[in-house]
Amino acid sequence: DYRQAWKEIEKTFGSMQASRIDSTMVARYVHIERAKAPKRANTEKALLSNLFGHGIKLGVCTVNATFGVEPHQLEARSEAPDEQVLANYLGWLSQQSPQRQIVGMAAEYASLAGNRKCEFLNLTWQQIDREAGVIRTIRAKQRGTKREQVVEVVKISPALEALLDRLLAVRKLDCHYVFPTRDNNQYSDRGFKTLWQRCVVEAIEQNVLTPETRFTFHDLRAFYATKHKKVTGTLPDLHKNPETTARVYDRNVEVF
Question: Does 134 have pLDDT greater than 80?
Answer without folding.
Answer: yes
